[in-house]
Amino acid sequence: MEIDRPAGVLFDVDGTLVDTAYLHTVSWWEALRQAEQEIPMAAIHRALGMGPQRLLEHLLGPERDRDADERIRYGHDSLFAEFRDRLRPLPGAAALLRACAARGLAVVLVTSADERELSALRAALLADDVIGGITSAGADLPPGADLLATALDRAGLDRERVVFVGDSVWDVAAAGHLDIPCIGLTCGGTGRSELAGAGAAAVFDDPAALLAGLADSPVAALA
C-alpha cells in the first residue's frame, strides 16, 4: 500500500525570510570592486538568487578569469560576515513558518548560504522548533545538484503537494523548472509585476502579508 507523503512549503531564506538582499548586494559589489570589476549595484541585485557561481557567470561572462572566482567569493563571504550579528527577520517571518506548521505542513528551508551564514540566518529567524528540514549549499550536495530538487527529495515531499516561497525571478524560475507553484515576495527588492511576469502563482509584500492572506493563497490548497 502506498503511503501518502506529507505536503509542505519550501522557503528561500535570504530576502524572503531575513532582510539580507541589499547586504548581499553591497558585499558582492565591494568584492568585485576589489577584484577590479566595476559592476553596478542594480545589476548585482537583479542577479541575487542565482547562487554564487551562476551569479559570477551572469555578471562577468564565460570569458572571465575564472581563477579569480574563488577570491571574489571569499571577499563576498568575508564582507557579509560583518553583518551576521545584525541580521533581522522580515516582518512576520517566524509567525508565517509557525502558521504553516500549524496547518500540518512540512516547513523546509532552501538556501545557497554556507554553514556559517546559515547559522546566522537561523539565529535571526528563531523558528528552529518548526523547521522540518534545511538544504543549503554548505551541505553535502552532489556536484551540480539542484538545491530545490534535493530539498524535496531529502524532505520526502512530492512536487504535486508543495509550494515554494521566494523573492526573486530566479526563485520563480527554479520552481517552474520543477512545475512547483511559487509565491513571490517583494521584500527582497523585486517588483510585483516582475515576479508575476516570471510566473509567480501569487505575489505578496512580505511574510506578514502572506500570513494575513494565507487562507486565500496557494498554501491553503495544501492543508
Describe the structure.
With 223 residues, this protein is of the alpha/beta class. Helix content is 43%, strand content 12%. The chain contains ten helices and six strands; from the N terminus they run E-H-H-H-H-H-E-H-E-H-E-H-E-H-E-H. Strands 3-2-1-4-5-6 form a six-stranded parallel beta sheet. Helix 6 (115-125) links the parallel strand 2 (106-111) and strand 3 (133-136). It is globular. The model has no long low-confidence stretch (mean pLDDT 93).
Structural class: alpha/beta
For the record, the CATH architecture of the largest domain stands as 3-Layer(aba) Sandwich
Q: State the helix count.
A: 10
CA-atom Rg in angstroms: 17 Å
- The CATH homology group name of the largest domain: HAD superfamily/HAD-like
% residues in beta strands: 5-15%
What sequence of helices (H) and strands (E) makes up the elements?
Answer: EHHHHHEHEHEHEHEH
Distance between the termini: 22 Å
Mean pLDDT: 93
CATH fold title of the largest domain: Rossmann fold
**Strand arrangement, major sheet:** 3-2-1-4-5-6
Helical fraction equals: 40-55%
DSSP, total strands: 6
The overall number of domains is: 2
For the biggest sheet, the summary is: 6 strands, parallel
Protein name: Phosphoglycolate phosphatase-like HAD superfamily hydrolase
Pfam families: Hydrolase
GO molecular function: phosphoglycolate phosphatase activity
Keywords: Hydrolase
